[in-house]
Amino acid sequence: MRRRVATQMVFRPVVALLTLALLLVPPSEADWDPYVSHPGYIPDFHNFTTPQMTPGESGQFTLEVTNRYAEPLENVIVSMDIYMRADIEGSEVIDAVAADARPRITEGCWMRLSNNEVECDAPTGQRATFSPGTLAAGEAVRFSTEIQSTEERSWLRCTLLGSRCDAGTAEGTYFVRFMLEFDHNGTARSMLSRGHWSMAEWETATTDVPDGAPGNINLTALGVDGVIPDSSFGVKEPIPKWPLYVMIGLTVMFAGLAVVFYLEEEGTYPKLNKWLQQQRGKLNQLRLRLKHRERRP
Question: Which of 183, 189, 242, 270 could tie 74 with a disulfide, CB 3.0–4.6 Å?
Fold first, then answer.
């Protein structure tokens, strides 16, 4: 009896310490829920409108977000930022691009499609944040931004006229990433798009996947409750059209000459032959005049 009491007295402190340790252990970065993180239920980012601009132009970048849960979302915050540029030569993060060669987000608005409620802001740089508040079940919000590019200043304008010499927006494809934060049934949730992780982090999350992971992605490794899509837009000088017009003109001209010479050889149009001979005579006279002028001292 004394031995049993002694054993209980020894284990009671151990059990208390284990219980306290479990209570003090912080929760994981993303305690994802099968319902909240299900790819078929996460908020739907859709109806993207992405601009294709020439340097110096501006364009509208729009998208819609729909709440596909059966419950409302509270404290909704959507953020977007331009994070990378790519072209045929390679890619670089936006911070590696010269400040005056980056496209800028000059205006950001959101509109609740159910009642046309609108709110606008004036973001700066390459980031815009929207706070529509609460989204009811099935409700959609449209987000729109104005993206501004700059045109490279000419040498004449910069040097002789003393204007500011901007480099102009670098041509290429610019990638946009998103962040979504909201409260669902009193629990704070966060979702990010692909651009928030490095290639190594993404490969780890898509190869080391536990059973039952939503979308075959290890959300615990990424520290989020879901993955939303990236997007992009382009800035590029259009291909000049004048060489095409020159080629078409030359083709028409040579085709016409070929028809004329063919008809001349056939001899079926005497008036045409006479006209061609007259033109050749005038051309020979012009050549003789030019040679005569060159020989004068």
Answer: 183
